[in-house]
Amino acid sequence: MNSIVDSRTPSAVDAAERYTAHNYHPLPVVITEADGCWVTDVDGRRYLDFLSGYSALNFGHRHPALIAAAHAQLDRLTLTSRAFIHDQFAEFCQRLAALTGQDLVLPMNTGAEAVETAIKVARKWGYQVKGVPDGQAKIIVAADNFHGRTTTIISFSTDEDARADFGPYTPGFEIVAYGDLEALAEAIDDYTVAVLLEPIQGEAGVLVPPDGYLSGVRALCSSRNVLFLADEIQSGLARTGRTFAVDHEDVKPDMHIMGKALGGGIVPVSAVAASREVLGVLKPGQHGSTFGGNPLSCAVGIEVIKLLETGEYQQRSAQLGAMMHEQLRALIGRGVTAVRGRGLWAGVDIDPGVMTGRQASEKLMGRGMLAKDTHGTTIRLAPPLVIEEDEITWAVRQLAEVIGAA
Ligand SMILES: Cc1ncc(COP(=O)(O)O)c(C=O)c1O
């Protein structure tokens, strides 16, 4: 390990600040290697990763099966565009359709693109199948949502940082309170084509809706002929202890929107999955992406789905998550005001009288644990699902010591 005097971190942080737009406020750590739950910085310090790339690293850093699939594919074929068909495409789509219980899959790259795909498909379904008058389609979303950063998506954000000065905004969205079924029922009208929701709101601070909300949304959407679009980009793929967060209420949405962990922490892979009636509205030329569904993405995605098919990661998240939540709840009243979440995913509210979420994250970093604050007082904990019991216990102890609870 380098001494403080010849540390490489300050100059590497400076260089990154000097040459990039300041659209993020990262912790001052410069990572150079990673394996499983652990990352190493340019000075040789090791940290336990409790963010997992916002759940893009559910299977840990460089999972051997995923790395092997990527290597093998790199040596054969990386890109064709969708102008041609490649030999990894059908298997990826078929396996993802089976995992979601849907008929058809449309792969894209980033989460925001998958959400854009969902919006476009829902509108087209509204005009062509439901019979909404042209240009009138309405999509209902929740307050405090986070669905990505495109101009359309930020148009219905309630976060001023995300939205201000990026107008003019895309019309056609109505915002209702998250978790409020009555407000949703009132907002649905004849022009409503879809309800777009995160089954657990991640960026808002890991907000879990009241029990019965997701099944209530399902029932409302079915009875009013409205599509339920579930943004499982952060909550899905084993993060909450089930394959999808909607599974906790045995709900099947009309569309699963996926991203992040679908690319195994190696490549950006996102997708939507829906019935033939819904996704079948798209015809050649109406939507697409040069890189969406490329061979490398599909090869890695196939291995991701195989990992999920074992059920091991869902089980680990459920069991270890219960343990993590129990340990975190013991901190309530001792520097922590609330703990929310499901599986290996928690939003921990730090008592503002003790310190900010940022200060807590920086102190944790100093102790070898990487977590990230959100909305001032909350820190999000989302370790890779390959984490071990003793590592969770160690991490919660670091948090307890940082906030003075230990
Ligand atoms: C629920 C949800 N939807 C969409 C996105 C956007 O994904 P991406 O950053 O890959 O565009 C995110 C990213 O945090 C997310 O959490």
Briefly, what is this?
This protein is of the alpha/beta class and 406 residues long.
Keywords:
36% helix; 15 strands; PyrdxlP-dep_Trfase_major; ornithine aminotransferase activity; globular; transferase; Aminotrans_3; 14 helices; binds pyridoxal-5'-phosphate
Plain-language structure description:
With 406 residues, this protein is an alpha/beta fold. Helices cover 36% and strands 17% of the residues. It is built from 14 helices and 15 strands. The strands form three sheets. It has a seven-stranded mixed β-sheet with strand order 4-10-9-8-7-5-6, sandwiched between helices. Strands 1-2-3-13 form a four-stranded mixed β-sheet. Helix 3 (64-74) packs antiparallel against helix 11 (295-309), helix 4 runs parallel beside helix 11 (295-309) and helix 12 packs parallel to helix 14. The longest helix is centred in the N-terminal third of the chain and has 20 residues, at 111-130. The radius of gyration is 21 Å and the shape is globular. The mean pLDDT is 97. InterPro entries: Aminotrans_3, Class-III_PLP-dep_AT, Orn_aminotrans, PyrdxlP-dep_Trfase, PyrdxlP-dep_Trfase_major, PyrdxlP-dep_Trfase_small. Its cofactor is pyridoxal 5'-phosphate.
